[in-house]
Amino acid sequence: MALKDTQKSLKDAEEAVSEVVDFSITMGIMLLAIAIIGTAGFPLVEHMQEAQHTENIKQSFTVLTSNINKVAFGSSPSQSVEIKLHESTAAVSGTSSIIVEMKVWNSSTHVVDTKSFDRQLRVIENRYKERSIGYENTGAWAKYEREKVVMISKPNFAVAEDLLMIPVVMLSGSSSVSGTGLVRVVCDGGLPSVHRYENVSMVNITIGSEYYDGWGRFLNETMGMQVTEYDVLNGTVSASKQYLPDNIDVVIVSSPMRVTIQ
């Protein structure tokens, strides 16, 4: 009888130990899962939220670009567009610029003259950490950490067999808003001017911009121009094209615009 009691006691003890071990393993798995979620899951969720915010901003700038270009080309006196901030900053800023140099045949003197047109552009920009998305000279651009510039909306340059049209949108204003929530970008157009150059045999465009490498690809791939220089130090790109033997006309549409961010 005593032997049976001893065997029963040992069996109960083994089952108790087994339950303790099972409980310990379960707790260990739960703690490990919590640790994994804490170290990997939360950053992943945060990254997904940031990516979604960036995508929303890109879509907002696509709409903003379309509306602002109506003002730039005189089809609307003003436009107002809302964008949503997420711990970011929206501002009118920068010192971006464009220089257009041309070789123009002078029919009076029968020589080739050099003509130059230059203006400051500036940018409407949303910045979040190391990311920026901006409207600049009828186009929209995105720049990410350690990555090349991505073109969101193509600039409204136009080229035909005998005509090249170059827009120049000059932004003024210095307002900025930081934080989270909706902000309104208000653009009021000024008096645009048209500059026409006839019998042009060569065009060289130099753009100074934070998005200069995106501009370089656009001028090369879309406008068929040869990139002659990337100046990383100064953030400029130069591209040129010869239009011989048949010269072309160049039309530069210069549009001043006042921008306020509320």
Terminus-to-terminus distance: 91 Å
- Helix-strand sequence: HEEEEEEEEEEEHEEE
Structural class designation: alpha+beta
Model regions low in confidence, pLDDT < 50 over at least 5 residues: none
The main β sheet shows up as: 14 strands, mixed
Oligomer: single chain
Q: Which percent band covers the strand fraction?
A: over 45%
DSSP strand tally: 14
Domain count: the total is 1
Task: Determine the number of helices (DSSP H or I, runs of at least 4 residues).
Answer: 2
Mean pLDDT: 86
Radius of gyration: 30 Å
Coarse morphology: elongated
* Fraction of helical residues: 25-40%
Structural notes for this entry:
The protein is α+β, with helices and mostly antiparallel strands and 262 residues long. The protein has one domain. The protein is 31% helix and 48% strand. It has two helices and 14 strands. Strands 1, 2, 3, 4, 5, 6, 7, 8, 9, 10, 11, 12, 13 and 14 form a 14-stranded mixed beta sheet that branches. A hairpin with a 3-residue loop joins strand 8 and strand 9 (163-172).
Question: Which labels suit this protein?
Answer:
14-stranded mixed sheet, 14 strands, single chain, 31% helix, 262 residues, alpha+beta
